[in-house]
Description:
Elements: H1 11-24, H2 28-31, E1 34-35, E2 38-39, H3 44-58, H4 61-73, H5 78-92, H6 94-113, H7 133-145, H8 155-159, H9 161-175, H10 183-197, H11 201-213, H12 218-228, H13 234-251
Helix pairs in contact: 1-12, 3-4, 3-5, 3-10, 4-6, 5-6, 5-10, 7-9, 10-11, 11-13, 12-13
Amino acid sequence: xxxxxFDIIPLKSIVIVSLAFVFLGIPGEAKAxxxxxxTLHLDNKQQSMVxxxxxxxxxxxxxxxxxxxxxxxxxxxxxEIKEVMVHLYAYCGFPRSLRGLRTFxxxxxxxxxxxxxxxxxxxxxxxxxxxxxxxxxxxxxxxLVQRKLDGPKAxxxxxAPVIEVFLKEHLFADIFERDVLNYQQRELVTVSVLTTIxxxxxxxxSHMNICLIQGFTPGQLEKLLQVLEKNVDxxxxxxxxxxxxxxxxxxx
Length: 252
């Protein structure tokens, strides 16, 4: 069984070290170091994904253009960025996603006119699994949370059973099965969007926890919030930090 990071080093200690970097104003290169082998940073591509997801969810199209250029320059492929925008619609809606995609088309056209040839990247592999989508989605979710989900259904699923079907068949099968982005990248996008829209603390806690399960460190989640605070309301960042701190304390 794969050992989780909080089984090795106390989570609270990791976050305290990470926060110390922030408050002491240590340069970016220093913040990229690790503590006892635990990574405290996000690379340029990951930070670009965070920013692109947030600005798309927020509908800040002017700053999104800058972020899209930055993401491409950082090495994100066209298909990776498209997949970010496809993924996030499940959390902030089609309108934001579609406007983001149209902004991306504009950016690509402008770059092409300047002679910049961006890497299209890999397309999603065909799905060959013929099992019912509900079963595939349930299995994907169990892989994300690393436990079986055979207990009583959540209250919302009992109240409106069809939404449980949509979640398993569409979100966790149709979307999460696509291999353009891996699980870590999809959760990075999800936490970025949930933090940006705000007032969804239970869902944010769940997805921050999945990030930890999928191998992110608390320091990396703090770095995610540092990236977001450039464009997201201070109250939402504060709320997200409270969720992260409470999650960490629950692991002690």
